[in-house]
Design goal:
Layout lengths: L1 H7 L2 H41 L3 H16 L2 H10 L10 H27 L2 H9 L4 H16 L1 H14 L11 H12 L3 H31 L1
Subcellular location: Cell inner membrane; Cell membrane
GO cellular component, one term: ATP-binding cassette (ABC) transporter complex
Main location: membrane
């Protein structure tokens, strides 16, 4: 038992590597602050364009959504990071993560927002248009607020998944939390830094899990 404790729960090693992991944590937080709004905005654009009901545009959007929902995020990230240099452009690790996550997460956010827009009854559209509002005004002031409220649990759930997904950035050596934990584990030949990283992830994301649970229960109760 003492060997297991020394290998996985070594307080001394955790204390020595905590600063290194903290540096990685700040990068993880930065990633979340960038990729989540960018992905959500991209998804919102996809959903609003789909609501225009233009046949050629819808075909292009379906292809976009299907392709980037089908591709594994890890494969997409490796592709985005490694292909541009062959075209003469050196892409940074952070740029690669942002672009790959934009492509992947916007397709999921787009489907969520689309479902929210479609959940708003035609009566809302007609009532808004009868007051003299244009299509874009109706979308922005009347439809979107209701759409977001209707799919809020799904938006929070997807945001939680995106936050967890940032850990794959470690495969291209971006110094985020998981990369820092793996580097510390390899340097100390001890798994305690990985355990510490696991605890940090839990502390950060557990409040979001509880918020999601409340929203889901509230949605069920409202039915």
């Amino acid at each position: 038992m003492s060997d297991v404790t020394a290998l996985f729960f070594n307080a001394e090693i955790m204390a020595k590597t905590a600063g290194f992991l903290l540096d990685g944590l700040w990068m993880t937080v930065l990633l979340c602050l960038v990729v989540i709004p960018v992905g959500a905005l991209g998804g919102l654009v996809v959903a609003v364009l789909a609501a225009l009901k233009r046949r050629w545009l819808n075909i292009a959007l379906v292809i976009y959504v299907d392709v980037f929902r089908a591709l594994p995020p890890l494969v997409l990230l490796v592709f985005v990071y490694n292909v541009p240099p062959f075209a003469g452009y050196k892409i940074s690790e952070l740029e690669a993560v942002v672009i790959a996550f934009l492509l992947n997460t916007s397709s999921y956010y787009g489907e969520i927002f689309r479902a929210g827009i479609e959940s708003v009854g035609r009566g809302q559209w007609e009532a808004a248009r009868s007051t003299g509002l244009g299509w874009w005004q109706t979308m922005g002031w009347v439809v979107l607020p209701q759409a977001v409220r209707n799919v809020l649990p799904d938006l929070v759930s997807n945001t939680l998944e995106v936050a967890k997904l940032t850990s794959i950035a470690s495969v291209i050596a971006l110094h985020e939390l998981m990369f820092a934990a793996r580097s510390a584990q390899q340097a100390t030949f001890n798994y305690s830094p990985l355990i510490l990283a696991t605890v940090i992830y839990f502390v950060l994301l557990w409040p979001v899990v509880r918020l999601l649970s409340r929203l889901e229960h509230r949605k069920i109760a409202a039915r």
